[in-house]
Fold each of these.
Amino acid sequence: MKILVLNGPNLNLLGTREPQTYGATTLPEVEALVTALGQARGATVLCFQSNHEGALIDRIHAARTEAVDAIVINPGGLTHTSVALRDALAGVAIPFIEVHISNVHKREEFRHHSYLSGIALGVLAGFGVDGYRMAVTHLLDKAS
Ligand code: CA2
């Protein structure tokens, strides 16, 4: 089982700014946690973050040749803007779970629409960084 955990723009700032919205855990801490979760269950978890839409799309394309079984993605602000990211995920046809740290439905109207949710396996929002653990655990459970 190989899972790719992707984070989009600005999520490298996790744990350093806006803790009231995004919590105090850093991205390296989240990545260490999901990597350990995978290791404990004999799975490989790969992690990648970029502030660039094209780099995320290239990483999604590469996932197909690496035989990645599933993707966990927090697309950041690209959630609400990117048809290209949706097309990339649809194009590789790798099942994915969309994760949002905050409950986007309780925030501004423009955060209520996601270009990805309609083709996602599932969506988690509002559970803080625990959403990443929940998503990876679900995929590991489903595969076992
Ligand atoms: O709640 C989420 O996880 C979001 O995907 C985060 C995005 C936001 O645009 C989405 O509407 C919801 C923003 C990511 C910014 O991350 C930061 C983390 C710490 C400090 C500042 C920004």
Amino acid sequence: MRILVLVPLVAFAMLITGCSEQVKEKARPNIIFIMSDDHAYQAISAYSDHLIQTPNIDRIADEGMLFSNACVTNSICAPSRATILTGKHCHLHGKIDNRVPFDTTQITFPQLFQAAGYQTAMFGKLHFGNNPKGIDEFKILPGQGSYYNPDFNTNDGKIHIEGYTTDVIRDLTMDWMKNRRDIEKPFLLFYLHKAPHREWLPAERHFKEFTKKTFPEPATLFDDYQGRGSAAKEAEMNILIHQNWAGDSKLRPEVLDELGIVPSSNWDKRAMQNQYNRFTEEQLAAWNAVYDPIIDDFRERYPSMTEKEQMSWKYQRYMQDYLGCIAAVDESVGTLLEYLDEEGLTENTIVVYTSDQGFYLGEHGWFDKRFIYDESFKTPLLVRWPGTVEPGSTSDQMVQNMDFAQTFLDIAGIDAPGDMQGESLVPLLKGDIKGWDRDAVYYHYYEYPAVHMVKRHYGIVTREYKLAHFYYDVDEWELYDRRNDPMEMQNEYDNPEYAEVVKELKQKLADLRVKYKDSEELDQKYIDLYTKR
Ligand code: SGN
Ligand code: CA
């Protein structure tokens, strides 16, 4: 009986061997890498639904895996992107901060995909100082880009498109997917949003909705930074003190003068004026129709507001605009996922959603990122891989943005260069925890002194602890017990109860510095490069 069944199967197999190359080619999976800019995991309902519902992004988690301890190597935009592309720590690819140049001799993983016969495309915000290599077709925002009526650098020069940037990036991506892609070839697509980066300008449909909402304040909004070292106290990212009244809270520049408000920075008023100047007449009218009444209300209330009330007001303004921007990102993810369904592409396409780092949404009174503390150190990571990843699964392993390159290469069956420093996440994605042996990650932040004034530091993070060394103009150590103090309010470094933990982690940190080829010489090299330019 068995033989009878096998014979036709063998015959069929022989019949298709002639076109086995084609079968193999078709079977190579597509990869879609979706990344937004500064998207905090606290603002994805798959992680926590206290701020916003993101049903489309959540779909990736529902049908795939959510990583609860995914993190970056250096919590800032361009360095993070260079790490993703090279699979290396910043001290090796050179892009240690937003300004020092990338070492363009470094191999980036799209080059390897292109050489292996994948078609490659990239739309949106790349922001790492160079055009991408190994990309057949790209349309990327110059630098930070704009929220409305964006310009793009393309393979054929500059273009300008009218519209709301998140929607424009969606349309460029969908146009490529529908009309420009070679359907015979596997593809690697980068779908990269500018939103929700500062200064948080939502689309009309969303500012109409989100400016009516009120959001819960985080427990540490009024943090006084006791219990930690000087870095937290001296950072300039407090919502009340450092967020721009015009540029961020969207007051009219002249209202600051009228109310006697001192601008938070020397670009505070200019930041909002630049936005007004970019709007078309129609966009400006729609904006003013919603924001003028908010400004008028603030005008009346401001003279009697306490500082605490000002903080609460600024926090609500921040959340309304920040989360409004995310609503458009979530919709854009939905558009792409639906298209994959319609075209029968879902099964053979890996979809990844992440951000270039995390972000503070009022925790510790902050906005922005940079610190090794959780809200900026961790980043959202959701991966859907039908047939391989168990739907609705989670992983709390210490995975890093440095791992993406090797993961994608592994999935596509392309050899990774020996000097990449990540680990393929494929074993974790397959649920094979034994195939994964990392228990700690290394972190290093450099951009200081600079905007937001977060001191230079490096550190080690395990699932249980976090040990950081702040250096350059200080020599301070901080230890956090991640399980007992998840909000990271108490530095335990000098607590004798943790003496053994400190000793062990210091040794492990030294070992990681050696393993990843970081050193005091390199710390000094990057200080010199930075301060002497
Ligand atoms: C701008 C922002 C900062 C932000 C940096 C880096 N200020 O300078 O708040 O930290 O970008 O952001 S703004 O007033 O110009 O918006 S990053 O995402 O590119 O690293
Ligand atoms: Ca960023």
